[in-house]
Amino acid sequence: MTSITIRGLVAGYGQGDILRGVDLDVESGTIACVIGPNGAGKSTVLKAISGLLRCRLGSIAIGETEVVGRSAREVLALGAVHVPQERSLFPLMTVWDNVLIGGHVLKDQRVVRRRADALAERFPLIRERRRDQAGALSGGQQKLIEIARALLLEPKVILMDEPSMGLDPKARHVVFETIRTLNEGGRTVLLVEQNARAGLAVAHRGRSWMRASCGSSGRAETC
Fold first, then answer.
1. Is residue 19 part of a domain?
2. Would you say residue 38 lies in a domain?
3. In total, how many domains does the chain have?
4. Please, what is the average pLDDT of the chain?
5. pTM
6. Helix, strand or coil for residue 111?
7. How would DSSP label each residue in 119-185?
């Protein structure tokens, strides 16, 4: 199990800093949920952790390893995967090929196939729809395939950005139960979510992330 520790994080886009002095702790083996309005910098935090966004100042540690300055591929190799808010499946590719592509950084394709077969047992949707184009799946089904694809790398840390976005209540329930199950398997989960009730229901700890929390102190309120 692996923790996430952020201290004094400053990051943003272009000349503008969205995060200014942010501190955040996610204990090993827990689910932490960050809630707040659009534009408060929640997704920016996940991008900074995963190496998709360069940090100007501050530190981010995954376990004992400092990741500021590392590439997204290097962070991935440390066992941290990022499931983005936007739909990230290739809609014209089959469900099976979308799962397999999650192992693109692995050199041994036999390992990729073995892990994909195991995921198909864990997620019956993969087995049932493996030959269908991913674009034919519902929003909730696509999100489950995205999560399954992330698991192909057997991560220690999962960063999830708005997993319930655009889902109906039934699909949302399935997705959050899947997140709970992943955590019970020993993974640390940092969840960004606008649906406060659903996100906090699955989390061990919540943080209310307002614009003020990205100011001089950068300390969000504990829920």
1. no
2. yes
3. 1
4. 89
5. 0.87
6. helix
7. HHHH-HHHHHHTTSBGGGS-HHHHHHHHHHHHHTT--SEEEEE-TTTT--HHHHHHHHHHHHHHHHT
